[in-house]
Amino acid sequence: NAGVTQTPKFQVLKTGQSMTLQCAQDMNHNSMYWYRQDPGMGLRLIYYSASEGTTDKGEVPNGYNVSRLNKREFSLRLESAAPSQTSVYFCASSLLWGGSNEQFFGPGTRLTVL
Amino acid sequence: KNEVEQSPQNLTAQEGEFITINCSYSVGISALHWLQQHPGGGIVSLFMLSSGKKKHGRLIATINIQEKHSSLHITASHPRDSAVYICAVSWGDDKIIFGKGTRLHILP
What we know:
The complex is a heterodimer of chains A (about 110) and B (about 110).
Chain A: E1 4-7, E2 10-13, E3 19-25, E4 31-37, E5 44-49, E6 56-57, E7 64-68, E8 74-78, E9 87-94, E10 104-105, E11 109-113
Parallel strand pairs in A: 2-11
Antiparallel strand pairs in A: 1-3, 3-8, 4-5, 4-9, 5-6, 7-8, 9-10, 9-11
Chain B: E1 4-7, E2 10-14, E3 19-25, E4 31-37, E5 43-49, E6 52-56, E7 59-64, E8 69-74, E9 83-91, E10 95-98, E11 102-107
Parallel strand pairs in B: 2-11
Antiparallel strand pairs in B: 1-3, 3-8, 4-5, 4-9, 6-7, 7-8, 9-10, 9-11
């Protein structure tokens, strides 16, 4: 089992460009999450999908959109990238929704917006 | 809103030393997580606990619900333990709040 996979690993964008970060899990998990990690700050939740067919905003959703394509895949889209979106992005999944469930993380995508 | 504070922010120790990393939070929780982030960036869940103590190999996690405090201990530390250790708590609507992490460096 690959666990949680993310593509790409690295990306450089110019301000205003768009891109989609892909995430897939093969653990048959119901819930999936997108986080960003910035220097000196803890991981912050961008969006989450508690179950297939649902998505909800997290702590820092502005400038992002998500799609839960099916049970396995959860993508994060930046429509018009800004330098403030330079960060490391992590996708995670858990069997069920809720903080009492262990989360499994992908390897991360390092995004730089110039 | 819950606040998660970790201490120390940075810790350097010699191989073999007993390591303690602390985590405090401000509001009652449903669960507390300890995670490890290696220099390559990958994040792995170490423990999830809501009371008492858990042990896995050389790692021990404890939680004191009354004092709103948890500790992660590493016995017989080794250079491969060098990583960032992250505390996270869940409460209320079950969202998780993450601490800023403790950067641990074990010298051979």
